[in-house]
Every structure is written in structure tokens, then in C-alpha cells.
Amino acid sequence: MNNTYFDIITAKEFEVLQDGKKVKKTKWNRVGHAWPSKNGDSLSFELYLLPSQRYVIKVQDRKEETPNDSVPF
């Protein structure tokens, strides 16, 4: 069984004073986690902002769509 998980993170830049000079720093925040599907063709992820809502990213090549294949929104 593959128990590989990935952190989803976001960066926030800010400035602090060090020795009277402004220095840029970056803070990384974990905002969710992701995991690969069993067959490896997609990643599922969940964001902490929207718990219990799963999203899927297909990582395989997809055939080119024709206008009839489009999903209306």
C-alpha cells in the first residue's frame, strides 16, 4: 500500500527590520494535503479551508476536445 502524501503550501512574504534595514522573509503555511490515486493517473487533494471537499487533478495526457465534448457551466 502506498502511503505517499504531499503538503499543499502557500508562501507569504513580509519584511522585518534587522540592524535598521528592511529584510524580506517568506513564511510557508500548510493549507492542505494531496495523495496519488491507486493507479497513479491523478492526485486527490483537500484544502483545510474547505474540509470534506475533495478535488482531483488528472495528471495523464488528455485527448484534444472538440466543441461537443465540452461541459457547459
Strand order of the largest sheet: 1-2-3-4
Q: Helices and strands, in N-to-C order?
A: EEEE
Q: What distance lies between the first and last C-alpha atoms, to the nearest angstrom?
A: 37 Å
| Rg over CA atoms | 19 Å
Q: Enumerate how many helices there are, as a single number.
A: 0
Characterize the biggest β-sheet: 4 strands, antiparallel
Q: Could you estimate the helical fraction of the residues in percent?
A: under 10%
Number of strands: 4
Task: Note the main attributes of this structure.
73 residues, mainly beta, four-stranded antiparallel β-sheet, 0% helix, 55% strand
Can you summarize this structure?
The chain has 73 residues and is mostly beta strands. It has strands at 6-18, 21-36, 42-47, 54-58. The model has no long low-confidence stretch (mean pLDDT 81).
Structural notes for this entry:
The protein has 73 residues and is mainly β. It is built from no helices and four strands. The chain has strands spanning 6-18, 21-36, 42-47, 54-58. The chain is elongated, with a radius of gyration of 19 Å. The mean pLDDT is 81.
